Amino acid sequence: MALSDDYNYDFWLLDLDGTLIDVEWSYTREVFDAVGDRIGREFTDREATILWNGLTGSRDRQLREWGIEPTSFWAAFHAEEDPLVRAEQTFLHEDAAFVADLEVPVGLVTHCQQFLADPVLDSVGIRDWFDGIVCCTEETGWKPDPGPVEQAMREIDVAGNGHRGVLAGDGSNDVGAAWNAGLDAIHVERIGHDRRGRCVLGDYRVTSFDELQ
User: Fold this and answer.
1) E strands within the chain?
2) What is the pLDDT of residues 110-158, one digit of tens each?
3) What is the pTM of this model?
4) Exposed/middle/buried for residue 110 (C-beta within 10 Å: 0-12, 13-18, 19+)
């Protein structure tokens, strides 16, 4: 896919879940059922969708609004996620294929933890798309904090050189992280603003990367 002149950046950063890949709903539902059993609190389909996709921004803030302590939730969540099962249930969005053809440095900045991201990247065959991969941690910070974005820029050797870059992602945290790091932001709306309950503004808003042609 040839990008239009508007998208001829010197480097690209991308989010992973919901942007390049997604998982089958049955997997998400099973994980939240198991997590609910662990913490003694059931999750509706809507609540599971909100947390899985980060529809309301900060997942920790959303958990607290529901009266759930985030540390306990994430401990249960990561205990229930099986990396190999998740990899088997993950699919690549067809319109994401353009990333393989980018002829500039490309980095990945994801909230997906490394023990999950590694088998997923291998399963869908996209690890070699990236010159650098950052899986956010407490040490790097979490989007919209610019910390992990700046780390990715260092890994792909574009930090501080004045090059024009962009971060593409499916959530408001991605847009915020891009702007906080001084980059342009592309919001990819996979969910739809009706289901999300809000519109996410970016420098560009698309429903598919095919629109970048």
Assistant:
1) 11-14, 21-23, 90-92, 106-110, 132-135, 165-169, 184-188, 204-206
2) 999 999 999 999 999 999 999 999 999 999 999 999 999 999 999 999 9
3) 0.91
4) buried
HSE-up (13 A, CA, CB side) for residue 193: 8
- CA distances from residue 82 to 12, 141, 160, 173 in whole angstroms, order as listed: 30, 24, 38, 25
Distance CA 88, CA 84 (A): 6
Name residue, tokens 């999750």. 43
- Name the phi and psi angles at 21, rounded to 5: -130, 170
User: Do 155 and 107 touch, CB atoms closer than 8 A?
Assistant: yes
* Residue 19 DSSP SS3: coil
Tokens 């919209």 sit on residue:
144
Alpha-carbon gap, residue 196 to 198, rounded angstroms: 5
Among 87, 106, 116, 104, CA closest to 24:
87
